[in-house]
Inverse folding.
């Protein structure tokens, strides 16, 4: 790879890191070609993009981004074979890894995950990442919580209103 190709690859990675607030670094080495193709297919179905990268290029791309994004702790994960899984949903790559490993064992291994400026290091974090809620799930939970008191109030008013109407009807019938 010549200097121009490296510069192009770094710029491409830099752009992907900037545009994705969720990405995972995993080790998918020792997987057969068939297994890698199956993993890529699973990623595609779940809206996850998998890219095998050279660690030095990924590190250089991350170093060019603003320090406030807190990418520095990820540099330790950029050793050995690395694949980066980009996603628009924070827990999607974790679910893909977990589902893939149900059949075939211990690979891919999670090295690190970057979730909206939070960093999770090590494969032992996989279960916690699977349980993370997506932004849409959190918004749905908040909406449900906000609707609940209003629904209770309306239900109470409706129930009391029908009791009041029944009592008035009974009084009207007695007078007649």
């Amino acid at each position: 790879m010549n200097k121009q190709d490296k510069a192009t690859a770094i710029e491409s990675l830099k752009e992907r890191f900037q545009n994705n607030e969720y990405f995972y670094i995993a080790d998918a080495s020792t997987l057969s070609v068939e297994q890698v193709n199956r993993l890529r297919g699973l990623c595609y179905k779940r809206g996850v993009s998998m890219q095998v990268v050279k660690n030095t290029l990924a590190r250089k791309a991350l170093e060019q981004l603003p320090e406030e994004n807190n990418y520095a702790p990820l540099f330790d994960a950029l050793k050995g074979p690395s694949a980066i899984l980009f996603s628009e949903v924070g827990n999607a790559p974790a679910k893909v890894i977990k589902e893939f490993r149900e059949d075939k064992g211990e690979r891919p291994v999670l090295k690190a995950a970057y979730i909206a400026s939070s960093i999770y290091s090590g494969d032992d974090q996989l279960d916690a990442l699977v349980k993370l809620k997506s932004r849409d799930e959190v918004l749905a939970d908040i909406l449900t919580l906000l609707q609940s008191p209003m629904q209770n109030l309306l239900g109470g008013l409706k129930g009391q209103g029908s009791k009041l109407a029944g009592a008035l009807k009974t009084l009207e019938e007695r007078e007649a």
Q: What stands out?
A: The chain has two domains: 3-132, 133-176. Residues 3-132 form a domain with the Alpha-Beta Plaits fold (CATH 3.30.70.1730). Helices lie at 3-19, 33-45, 55-63, 92-104, 126-131, 135-175. The chain has six helices and five strands.
